[in-house]
Amino acid sequence: MSPSDTPGGRWSDLDRPPLNATALRRALIRPGGLWTSLEVVPATGSTNTDLAAAAVRGAAEGTVLIAEEQTAGRGRLDRNWSAPPRSGLFFSVLLRPGDRVPAERWVWLPLLAGVATATALSRSAGVDTALKWPNDVLLTSTPDTGAGPGRPPAPVERKCGGILAERAGDAVVLGVGINVSLRADELPVPTAGSLALAGAANVDRDPVLRAVLRSLEEWYGRWRETGGDPSASRLQQAYAAGCATLGRTVRAELPGGRATVGEAVAVDGDGRLVIATADGAHESVAAGDIVHLRAASAGE
Question: Taking Cα atoms as reference points, which of 247, 246, 249 lies closest to residue 236?
């Protein structure tokens, strides 16, 4: 038995082949392009942690680090993100917006990554996607049953991806995690999902990753060329169009233990979620957990 055939080896699960780093570099790294280097490692604690350290050491913009497995992956608020080896895409990219984009507009980078990821998954895997503010990528489907007379069934939403943005000196590290072949008995929580479970037309990680990175390059280039202006780059409009949070009754669980309930009505120019409360006030939320309660149009 070869080392790669042993439990946990690169070919231990034939339904989950390893990524082809050479082919990925050939497809993505080009003169004048954003991506400057790409590495695939068998396992690491966190690609974000590793790439943040590399950023401090002077790593170039466009560095991409991909792990076949993350043993200490993190989501927002330092939550754990774990999955079986090669069951998803776990990667981080290093960006240096520099003087072309004011630092106060860097808050749009995780939302930009959400738009880029959701768009790429729809195109490359043939799935319906949506965004949950601020950093979740959802797979949506409409059940065949459960609708009353004259009332369409509510879409089912499952989280298949998450995004984490972190400052590293004068750089930003964007981490992306996408569940690709995760099986039902491997889901970390009932609200999670994967491309495979959603019946995706394509669960080959190589072309899906290429699609996501190309989409991210396109959106980042457009955003940077406009000085990070979310309206001029059409990023704000694209995010709003794909955001499942807008138009919903939500509960925002805010830092300090405070919570507010109301209708999510907009994402403002600073990337904040604007919530209209029952007393007629509008509150802009910059950070917090958002719980989708029910559709605002359901007649409550």
Answer: 246
Q: 218: part of which helix (H) or strand (E)?
A: helix 205-225
Angstrom distance (rounded) from CA 161 to CA 177: 5
30-73 confidence digits (pLDDT tens): 999 999 999 999 999 999 999 999 999 999 999 999 999 998 75
Q: What is the DSSP letter of 39?
A: E
Q: Is the dihedral of CA 11, 15, 19, 24 positive or negative?
A: positive
So what's the pLDDT on residue 255?
85
Query: What's the predicted TM-score (pTM) here?
Result: 0.90
Which residues have a Cβ under 8 Å from the Cβ of 121 and sit 6 or more positions away? 127, 129, 137, 160, 161, 178, 195, 208, 211, 212
Give the separation between CA 118 and CA 289, rounded to whole angstroms: 20
Q: What is the pLDDT of residues 133-146, one digit of tens each?
A: 999 999 997 665 55
d(CA 21, CA 2): 21
Cα–Cα distances (Å) from 227 to 105, 117, 171, in that order, read 9, 21, 16
Identity of the amino acid at 142:
T
Tokens read off for 243: 């955001």
Nearest residue to 88 (alpha-carbon basis) of 179, 223, 219, 206: 179
Residue type, position 297, single letter: S
